[in-house]
Predict the 3D structure of the following.
Amino acid sequence: MYIICRLKPYSFTIKFCQHECLRCEWMDLNDLAKTENTTPITSRVARLLLYGYREGFDKIDLTVEELPAVHTGLFYKLYHKELPDNYKTMKGID
């Protein structure tokens, strides 16, 4: 299952590949968060979204930062809560 979240649809008509999916439907986030007929990851994502929608997405959002690895030409991704600018530059911090 693929979840597209926090986007605004151009249309509420779902066009999907019938070879890959049996069905697709829009679901109310409250209903999805409460259902027991889903995978653990879908349930967790729905509950995170519901919490973010109600309490503010700043409580759940992570940023991703791509940093160079020690091996030339390779990179890694670090996921974390946003780091305040003064900590990024280390200016004004003792």
